[in-house]
Amino acid sequence: MLDYLGEKEQAKTIFSATEKVITEGKYLTYDLGGSAKMSEMTDVIVRYVEAEMK
């Protein structure tokens, strides 16, 4: 959605953070082969986004 709205850098940051979380494999939801809650996975993604923005 952000990419569609022209917010390409923000979209890239979120996509990159999501890729990091999936690659690490520690906080994956059931549909991705893990056992984390969606809120747990989202929290980690948000932490990566916040770190990237600093």
Number of domains: 1
Helix and strand string, N-terminal first?
HH
Number of distinct helices: 2
Instruction: Give the integer mean of the pLDDT values.
Output: 96
How far is the first residue's CA from the last residue's CA?
23 Å
- State the major sheet: none
The low-confidence runs, each spanning 5 or more residues with pLDDT under 50, are: none
Shape: globular
Notes on the structure:
The chain has 54 residues and is an all-alpha fold. The chain has one domain (8-53). Helices cover 61% and strands 0% of the residues. The chain contains 2 helices and no strands. It has helices at 8-24, 38-53. Helix 1 crosses helix 2 (38-53). The protein is globular and about 35 Å long. The mean pLDDT is 96.
Secondary structure layout:
Elements: H1 8-24, H2 38-53
Helix pairs in contact: 1-2
Task: Give the gist of this structure.
With 54 residues, the chain is mostly helical. It is built from two helices and no strands.
List the main descriptive attributes of the protein structure presented here.
54 residues, mainly alpha, 2 helices, 61% helix, globular
